[in-house]
TrEMBL record, chains A, B, C, D:
Pfam families: ASRT (PF07100). This is Sensory rhodopsin transducer. Gene3D superfamilies: TM1070-like (2.60.290.11). SUPFAM superfamilies: Hypothetical protein TM1070. InterPro entries: ASRT, TM1070-like_sf. It comes from the Bacteria.
Length: 121, 121, 121, 121
């Protein structure tokens, strides 16, 4: 477990086919909090051509998970589709973070990829 | 190797197409036990909106592997399809754990994704 | 880098479609040896229902990579298709190991999944 | 974070279908630099049958990411399609590196796979 996790390879696919929300294209961060304290996590997004944006905030309850679609993050600003990004998640308690992408840009197809995020500290 | 492993991003796809069992949609936990002792492993599932459920139990023999489909876990309760979850696996001896998802929701297609689980301790 | 790496979730898909060898279904182990010594690596395969089989042997030259399809391993015995396995790779020098699966069981489709192997020691 | 990262399983798919650049087949290295110093990173490519080639160089600004397609690396020489490779990335400051492959060899399909690179030191 760690309190800071990094994902360098973010990129929400542009466009999707099939029914929403189950066949939407998305990037997703999956957070597991096994502790007995609620975790108010902070996210910062890094880009190729501008200063980082954040913090984005969401809570993961004690003994709970939370799967957050990056597409749904809008405060302080929406994460644009088809724009390469990386992100760093910080938590006040140790958590585990996994990254998942679903790509349905092509009709009748689903592509998936993912990896555990990298524990920074 | 480690005795505790975590997977934050579980989600058994809802629905599958093609023949069973080879083309069913599933999430899978793959456990490798290279030790000379049988490992009775314990699984706890974490959810977004309720307390954790477990332990689920299964054995991995000495010098054996075991690939368990999450869909097949029914005791103490079935893991519902299309419900986000995370899980923690605990073993009395050091093991290695890998996570795999097969998604066949769309006719004539297979999507795969996976990652090594995160070693917690 | 490490001298021992583990992959718990092996399973060569049964059957493939499309031209060989580029569209065959396979599991693959990718080894990077950045040292100045040739690495004669040893592989042991673990199964659900029988004792481990090995060693399989192959060499990775100094400052070389080697991508080995599990389907191609035949000595001391062929690794059967559609049979769950795990494997442990041991090297006399530090290397890095990645696992990849290509699944072309369904006509006109390719599914890929992979992960870094787990460094054991 | 680490200053040296390794990817053993590189292989840019040969051929792609669909519009460029979004549906080209590619291997990609995604680098996140959260430090306050620009990172001039060095890449060395390892092959099955010849000495390593490099360094390739590119910069990742302070507090920036960079997603580089291996297909686009041409200096000191182009990385050939359909040729197995491994690579090692070295950075003067700590970074995080993720690997992604997109395979569109078959018409109307996208396959994705990826993993965090392995932190060497």
């Amino acid at each position: 477990m760690a309190q800071v996790w990094a994902v360098p390879g973010g990129h929400v696919p542009f466009g999707g086919t099939g029914g929403e929300p189950q066949f939407t294209s998305f990037d997703q961060l999956c957070v597991l909090n096994t502790t007995d304290s609620e975790a108010e996590v902070l996210l910062h997004f890094y880009y190729e051509d501008t200063e980082p944006v954040g913090p984005y905030r969401f809570a993961v309850g004690a003994r709970r998970i939370r799967h957050v679609r990056v597409n749904d993050l809008i405060d302080p600003e929406a994460v644009r589709l088809d724009r390469p990004y990386g992100c760093v998640l910080s938590s006040p308690v140790p958590v585990v973070v996994q990254f998942l992408r679903q790509d349905t840009r092509l009709p009748g197809t689903v592509a998936l990829t993912g990896t555990m995020a990298h524990p920074v500290g």
